[in-house]
Amino acid sequence: MGDLLGVAVLGAGHMGADHIRRLDHGVSGARVVSVADPDTDRAKEATAGIDGVQVHCEPQAALDAPGVEAVLVASPGAAHEEALLAAFARGLPVLCEKPLVPDAAGALRVVEAEARLGRRLAQVGFMRRYDAEYVRLKSLLDSGRLGRALMLHCTHRNVSSPSHFTSDMLINSSVSHEIDAARWLLDQELTAVSVLRPRPSGNAPEDLLDPQFVVFETSGGALVDVEVFVNCGFGYQVRCEAVCEDGSARIGDGHSMLVTRAGAACEEVAQDYLVRFADAYDREVQSWVDATRQGRVSGPSVWDGYAASAVAEAGVRALHQGVRQTVDLAPRPGLYEDDGNRPR
Amino acid sequence: MGDLLGVAVLGAGHMGADHIRRLDHGVSGARVVSVADPDTDRAKEATAGIDGVQVHCEPQAALDAPGVEAVLVASPGAAHEEALLAAFARGLPVLCEKPLVPDAAGALRVVEAEARLGRRLAQVGFMRRYDAEYVRLKSLLDSGRLGRALMLHCTHRNVSSPSHFTSDMLINSSVSHEIDAARWLLDQELTAVSVLRPRPSGNAPEDLLDPQFVVFETSGGALVDVEVFVNCGFGYQVRCEAVCEDGSARIGDGHSMLVTRAGAACEEVAQDYLVRFADAYDREVQSWVDATRQGRVSGPSVWDGYAASAVAEAGVRALHQGVRQTVDLAPRPGLYEDDGNRPR
Amino acid sequence: MGDLLGVAVLGAGHMGADHIRRLDHGVSGARVVSVADPDTDRAKEATAGIDGVQVHCEPQAALDAPGVEAVLVASPGAAHEEALLAAFARGLPVLCEKPLVPDAAGALRVVEAEARLGRRLAQVGFMRRYDAEYVRLKSLLDSGRLGRALMLHCTHRNVSSPSHFTSDMLINSSVSHEIDAARWLLDQELTAVSVLRPRPSGNAPEDLLDPQFVVFETSGGALVDVEVFVNCGFGYQVRCEAVCEDGSARIGDGHSMLVTRAGAACEEVAQDYLVRFADAYDREVQSWVDATRQGRVSGPSVWDGYAASAVAEAGVRALHQGVRQTVDLAPRPGLYEDDGNRPR
Amino acid sequence: MGDLLGVAVLGAGHMGADHIRRLDHGVSGARVVSVADPDTDRAKEATAGIDGVQVHCEPQAALDAPGVEAVLVASPGAAHEEALLAAFARGLPVLCEKPLVPDAAGALRVVEAEARLGRRLAQVGFMRRYDAEYVRLKSLLDSGRLGRALMLHCTHRNVSSPSHFTSDMLINSSVSHEIDAARWLLDQELTAVSVLRPRPSGNAPEDLLDPQFVVFETSGGALVDVEVFVNCGFGYQVRCEAVCEDGSARIGDGHSMLVTRAGAACEEVAQDYLVRFADAYDREVQSWVDATRQGRVSGPSVWDGYAASAVAEAGVRALHQGVRQTVDLAPRPGLYEDDGNRPR
Predict the structure, then answer these.
(1) Residue A258 CA: distances (Å) to CA of A264, B325, B337, C228, D135
(2) Are A25 and D51 an interchain contact pair (Cβ–Cβ within 8 Å)?
(3) A233, B192, B239, C75: which could form a disulfide with C11 (CB 3.0–4.6 Å)?
(4) Which domains does chain C possess?
(5) What is the ipTM of this complex?
(6) Which of B152, B186, B199 to probe the A interface (max A CBs under 10 A)?
(7) Are B160 and B231 in contact (CB under 8 A)?
(8) pTM above threshold 0.95
C-alpha cells in the first residue's frame, strides 16, 4: 500500500484518546492529522508527540484540515448525527463509535442520508464482530456444522456501573452489544423483546434495576436471552452460548492461565472491556484503515446501527411497560441489501 | 443398627427394577420382601435371586406381606395416589418416585391425608437433592458467602425423547426436576411462569415443541430460567448457574477426564440420567433407608411434590396460552412448616 | 445373596475406624464381628452401637471370634506380615491396607506363603484402582483407542506432611500409590528408577527433601514421571496424564463447581485423600465384600503388594545414591500368572 | 514517532516471507526497503506490491541498499553468523530469528563481536517471551505471589515432524524454545541436562527417537522437565506449569470456544505454531520496530542466543551418551550484565 491514511478524530475523551493512540502506533497505515474536542487541552494531551497534528474546537474545522481522508467519530452520541452528515457531505469514509445515533429516528435519518448518496461511507463501531472468540463462533455457525441456531444464551456483566448509569442504559448501552452480536451471529432481525426484572441486587445503586433479564425473538424463530448485570462485583464477563439443532458452542469462559493456591484452582476474570476487547478494537480499526485505503467500506453498516437503536428502544419500552414489545423497522433501503453483512 | 428394613416395592418396570437391585445390594440396611406389578413375570425377573421375596399382582397384597416395614413406590404416576393412601392407612413410611401424583388436585389430596395423620410418612423421589454437585451448590448458597441469589440459569437436555413424549411433558416431566431444585436451592416458592417457544429443532418429532424456554418468578423476587431441550442429540446435560449479589456458581460442566486426539481436547458428556445421577439415586435410597430405620422422615415432602405439580400445571397453561401464568398454592398445612426442608 | 459376611478388623486407628464405619453402614452385605487393637478403648469407641461386636487386644483373638469369615487388616504396616500369615493359617480371605508389608523381603515371604496355599486369599488396598477417574483412564487405555502408552506424567501433592514424615516416605508411602497405579494402568513392571531432587521448598520441614521428581522406566519401554510434593500448601491433588501414540488423556483436573467472585473463577481443590478418594474406598470395600461372599478373590494381589515394595525400595536407593537404580523382582509364582490383574 | 523504519530482510522463505508481510502491513512504523535471497524469484513474490523495494541475491547488497536502518535475519541458521557480523560492521540493529547461530562456538563469536562494539545491536527471535500467556506467567512469577519456583513441567508437541527432522533436532530445534523460556521465566541459568528416551511412538519415522523426556537442572536448584513429542498426531500443544512454594500456575490449556456435539464437549487444539504464536510474532516485531525507532535494544540478547545453543549442545550430548551432562558457559561479558533481561 501507499501513503498513510490521514484521519480526523472527533472527540478526545476516554474512547477518543484510546483511538488516537491506536491510529498513531497501534495499527499500521494511518496517521492522525486533526482532532476536534470542545476541551482542546485534553485534545492536545491526547495528541502529544504526533507530528503536524491540528487540534480544533469544532468538528467541521477538523474535517476541513488538509490531508484528511477519513473520519473516526468518538464524540458523545448526541453529536454523532451531525458529524456523520458532515462527513457524508465531504464524501469522507467514517468509523463511528456506537451508538450510531442514540435514538432510532435520528439513526434512520443517517440511513436515509447515506442511501441518498448511493454508496456506503460509514461503519459502526460494534467491535465484538472483530473479537477472536466471536469470529470463531460466527464461523462455526455459518459453517452449518451445528445445524440451525435455536437459542443464544448471553451474559453481560460489569464490575460496577458509573454513577450516571440508568436502568434504561442497561438495555440501550450495555445490551446494545448483544443486540448487534445476535443479529450478526444469526443473520436475522430481532422482532420482539421482553424484559424481566428480578429483585435488584443490594450492591446496585438505589433505584437501578440491576440485573435485568432480556429475551428477544428473531425473524427466524430463534430466542436470544441476555442476563445484563452491571454491578456483579467480580469482573467484566461476556459470554455467549449458541444452542443449535446438532450441538452447542460457548464462548467467554476461556482462560489463559490456571493458578492453584490456597485450596482453589482459579482463572482470572477480566475487569474491564478495554482489556477483554483490546484485540478486537485493534482489529476493528486496522480493518477499517485497510479497507478505506483500498476504497472499500465493510463492517457493520448504518443500517446495523439503526436496527440496534430500534431494538433497544423497544427494549426500553418493554422494561417500562412490563410486557412484550414488538420491534418495527423501517423498510431497508436497497443499498443495504447486498452488503454481505445484512441479516436476513 | 439392627435388622434389615423390609421393603415392599410397587412397580417393577425400568425404575422399579433399578430400585429393587439397589435395595438388594446397592445400599445397606434393607431387603426387598415383596414386589407388586401387574406383569408378574417382569416382577419375578427383577427379583431373581432374592431370598424369600413375594411377588404379587396387586399393590395391596404386596403391602400386606409379612415383614413389610416400608414402601418404595415406582409404579406409573397414575397409581401413586392410591398407593400412598394405602401406605398411610397401614402407617408405612414411603419413598415415592416423582411425580408424587400427576395432577395438583390429586397431590393436594395426598397432602391433606398425611396432614390428617399428623406426622410425615412420605418422601418424594427428587433425587437431585442428593447429587453431590447440587448439594455443594446448596451448601454454598446457604452459607451466604455469595449473598442473595438473584437468578438461576438452568439447562436440561436429553439426547432424544421417547416416542410418547408430548410438548406438555417437557414441562411436567422434565422441568419438574428444575422446579423442585429451584424451590430447594432458593428456599422460595415459584409464583409465576412464562413459556417461550423458539422454532422447534428439525431433529424433534413433528408437532413436538422442543426446545422450550421457561422462566419462573419466585416469592423472593428471583428469576429462574430453564432451557429444556429433549432432542439435543449430543448428551444428557443438566447444568445450573446461580447468580448472586456477590458472585456466581455453576455446576454441571465438570469433567473427570480430558482426552486429546485428532485436533481437539474433549470431555465426555453423559448420555443418560441413570449414569449422570447414579450416585444421587444411591444416596437418596440409602438416606431413606437409614432415616426409616431410625424412625425419622426427611427429604422432599409431599408438600414439595404438590408444589411441583401445581407449578408444572401453571407451566403447561403458560405453554398453551402463550402468556405468563401465576401459580396458586393451597395453604400449607402446619405439618410442613417445621420440617427443615420448607421453602419460605 | 444370603447372610451378612462376618468381618474381623485388625486396627482401630484412623484408617481402621473409617473401615469399621464403612463395613457397618457404608457398604452392604457385611457386619463387623470383632476388632483388635492394643488400645481397646479406641476400638470400643470405633465400634460403639454395633450389635454383638467383640473387642480384643490381640489380633489372633479377633480372628478366632465366632462368626469371623474374613479379615480386614488396618493395623500398622509392621504388623501386616504376622496378620496375613495368621489369616492364611485359618483360610480367611483378607483385605490388607497398603503397604502389604513395608519391606520387599517381608512382602516376598507373604507371596510365597500364599503361593504355597495354592489359592489367593488376600487383596491389597490400592484403592486408586477403584476410583472412577482411574477406572475410566484404565478403560480407555485398554480399549486401544489411543494406541500404546508412551509416558505417564503424574502429580501427587499434599497440603502438608505429618511431623514423622521422612524423605524416604515421599517414595515408599506417597509414590507407592503411583507405583501401583502405573503397573496397573500400563500392565507392565517398573524396571528402573531415578530420583531428582530440586532445592526443597521453604515450606517443607528442615531436612525434608520435598518436592522430589521420580522417573520410572517400564518393561515395555514407557516412562513414568512423578512429582511428589507433600508440603505444597494448597490442596491434595492427584493427577495423571497418559501420553499415547494417538492422543493423550488426563485425569485429576476435573471440577464439580465453578465459583466466580472477586475477579476470579475458581474450582475447589480437595484438601484430603479421604475426601478425594472417599468413593474409591467405598467401592473397594464393597467389591471385596461382594467377591468374598461369592468365594472369589479379585483386586490387587499380594504380588502387586510385593512389586510395589520392591520398586519403592529401589526408589529410596536412587534417592540416597543420586543415580538410577534397577529393580530386581523375584520370579513370579504361577499363582499370579492367571489372575487377570497381572502386569505383563 | 516520525518516519517509517527502513528494514532489510535477509531470507524470503517460509519465515522470511511471513515477516515481510508483517513489516509491510501487520505492524506499524516500518517498511521493507530491501530483501535478499539466493532465490530472487521467491523474494520478488514475497515483496509483490511493496513500493520501491529492492530485491538482491546477496545479503551484503541488501544491507547496503539506500534507506536501510535495521535488519531482520530470517535466512537459514548457517548464514546467521556472517549476517550478524555484517550488520554489526554497519552499526545496524538486528532482529535475528532463532537459532542465533546453530553451534555454541559460533554463537560465542557473535557475543564477543557485539561485546567489542560495546553496545547491544541484536535481538534474538525467541517469540514466546511475547506470548500473552507466557507474559502473564512471567509476571506472576516475578510478583513473588507464589513464592520461589521449584519446578517447571513443560510440554512441546507437534502434529508431525518434517522429513528432514533428526533426533538431535528434538532438542536443538524444538526444546531450544523451552530452554530460553525456562531461563527467562526463572531468571536462572540451566546447569545440567539429562535425556530419557521412552520407546519411540509407532507413528514416528523410523530411527527418530520421538518422544524424548528432557530434564534440566538450574543454577537456583530448580528442575525443568520437558516432554518433547513431534509426532503426537493431534495438534501443536505448548504447555508450562510452574510449581512454586506457595502454589502453581499453568498455561497452555486455555480454550476460547467449547463445542458440544455427539457426546463430547471439545476445545479445538491449534495445529500449527504460526497459529498458536501469531500474536506473539506480531508483538515481537512491533516491539523491535518501536524500540529501534527509539534507538533502544531490548528483548532476548545474543547472550541468550549463545546460552540456548550451549545448553542444547549439552542436551544432544546427553541424548547420545545416555547420562547427565553439565553445561559449561563462557564468562558473561559485562555488556550483558545490565540489560535487564539477564538470568542471574
Answers:
(1) 10, 45, 45, 20, 14
(2) no
(3) C75
(4) 5-128+280-301 (3.40.50.720), 145-275+305-334 (3.30.360.10)
(5) 0.90
(6) B199
(7) yes
(8) no
